[in-house]
Design brief:
Layout lengths: L2 H9 L9 H18 L3 H7 L6 H7 L18 H14 L1 H21 L2 H13 L2 E5 L15 E5 L2 E12 L4 E9 L9 E7 L5 E6 L10 E12 L3 E2 L5 H37 L1 E2 L2 E2 L4 H29 L5 H25 L11 H8 L9 H13 L3
Parallel strand pairs: 1-4
Antiparallel strand pairs: 2-3, 3-7, 4-5, 5-8, 6-7, 9-10
The protein binds flavin-adenine dinucleotide.
The site of flavin-adenine dinucleotide has 21 residues, from strand 1, strand 3 and helix 12.
């Protein structure tokens, strides 16, 4: 770089996609891991609706399950942005593994780091960073978008609480050893009754129920959870009683950036396949990449993806910098899930008829993209958040 350029680079803040050396190394390490270890198993896992069990210890080994967890608790003590890079790189290869890493870092670890007592942190964070998958259970059969209408009940009984109810759609249900479960200690108090509990898989009265058979992210487990007079020590309340709504809202605000990362990762993976295919497939005596129509489709996809990536990276950098990011996170999830759907759909068309078959990767990326508009707040809920930020609540 010339001296003038070096001086300019120091004077002006760099582009959002400019990574530090540490970030670059981490991104490349995760990308290579995903290609080598996850890549060969993607179709099988999608077909069999299950994550290959041997992959999970590997995710722990390379430090992807406790990215922000401080080193004193056995984690990597890194940034939220690094978690975003990890989710992006994993999702580039497989969005199911991507969401496993995402829920662990942006929801479960995140909630514990912010609201757990020192004793809870010492008990759970080292496990979450070394061998225990976490899950985050807010939704119920009758309350999704309207999450605070939940009906799982927690009744105090001496030094413990007894939880009864049913959670639905819980990611990592099959693999998790620790569940953050939201229940109400006072149904009459509305959202002010909601309380977060740390529930271990083997607590009496807790059971993982039916696994959903889904359109996309099929290897990622999505289960119902059954709480039948489940006994949870009072010491396992996360944060304060009646303040669970705050934990849910604030962790989901951050989690949304992780879903944005999942969406840009899978759109990137899909586009890379599309470009490769366009350079190989012959029609009318030349490779289809020579047709301007195909070139423009690829250019449009790349532009969509770049815009989505900028929104996601910006929201993550704002969060790491301690700046407000509520609206930016909602925009990142809204736009990146839209963009991922557009890109993955276009790539199917670049593949022609082959794109419509399971022999090629294009259709899976498209199926996987659909979830981005649904979980951690539907697109309508993101629009609501953005509108409220602009117009105020009244
Ligand atoms: C694969 C998968 C994994 C999931 N993982 C988890 C998890 O780990 N933990 C967890 O707690 N939950 C999880 N969920 C649940 C997910 O967050 C909910 O499905 C989602 O929030 C939507 O809730 P719902 O399904 O009840 O839809 P509803 O809330 O019934 O919404 C139905 C439709 O009505 C619209 N709508 C509702 N209210 C409004 C409104 N006020 N204004 C405008 N439109 C509105 C919605 O946008 C949507 O289009 C998961 C879901 C899936 C499918």
């Amino acid at each position: 770089m010339s001296t003038d350029l070096q001086a300019a680079a120091q004077r002006y803040p760099s582009g959002l996609t400019i990574l530090s050396e540490e970030e670059k190394m981490f991104r490349d390490m995760v990308g290579k891991f995903a290609e080598k270890e996850i890549g060969p198993l993607v179709s099988k896992m999608d077909r069999e609706m299950a994550i290959e069990p041997s992959l999970i210890p590997k995710l722990f080994e390379i430090g992807l399950m406790g990215i922000e967890v401080p080193e004193t608790y056995g984690g990597s003590g890194s940034s939220f942005f690094m978690a975003v890079l990890a989710v992006e790189q994993i999702s580039r290869v497989d969005a199911s593994l991507g969401v496993l890493v995402d829920v662990q870092n942006t929801l479960v670890n995140n909630a514990l780091m912010r609201w757990a007592t020192e004793e809870q942190k010492k008990r759970y964070l080292p496990r979450l960073a070394s061998d225990t998958v976490g899950a985050y259970a807010l939704s119920e059969p009758d309350s999704g978008s309207d999450a605070f209408a939940l009906s799982t009940r927690a009744v105090q009984d001496g030094e413990q609480y007894r939880l009864t109810g049913r959670k639905l759609w819980i990611t990592n249900g099959e693999e998790a050893g620790l569940f953050i479960i939201f229940a109400t200690i006072n149904p009459g108090a509305g959202y002010r009754g909601i309380t977060a509990f740390l529930v271990e898989r083997d607590f009496p009265g807790f059971r993982v129920g039916k696994k959903e058979d889904k359109l996309g992210i099929r290897a990622s487990s999505t289960n119902e959870l059954i709480l039948d007079d489940c006994q949870v020590p009072q010491a396992n309340i996360l944060g304060e009683p009646g303040k669970g709504y705050k934990i849910a809202m604030e962790t989901l605000n951050e989690g949304r950036i992780g879903i944005g990362a999942q969406m840009i990762g899978l759109a990137q993976g899909s586009l890379e396949h599309g470009i490769r295919y366009a350079k190989e497939r012959q029609a009318f005596g030349q490779v289809i990449a020579k047709f301007q129509a195909i070139q423009f489709q690829i250019a449009r996809c790349a532009t969509d993806l770049e815009a989505a990536r900028l929104l996601v990276y910006n929201a993550a950098r704002l969060r790491d910098g301690g700046h407000p990011f509520l609206m930016e996170a909602a925009m990142a999830k809204l736009f990146s899930s839209d963009a991922a759907e557009r890109v993955t759909s276009q790539v199917i068309e670049i593949y022609g008829g082959y794109g419509y078959t399971k022999d090629f990767p294009a259709e899976k990326y498209w199926r996987d993209a659909k979830i981005g508009k649904i979980y951690e707040g539907t697109s309508n809920m993101q629009l609501g958040t953005i509108a409220k930020s602009l117009l105020g609540k009244d």
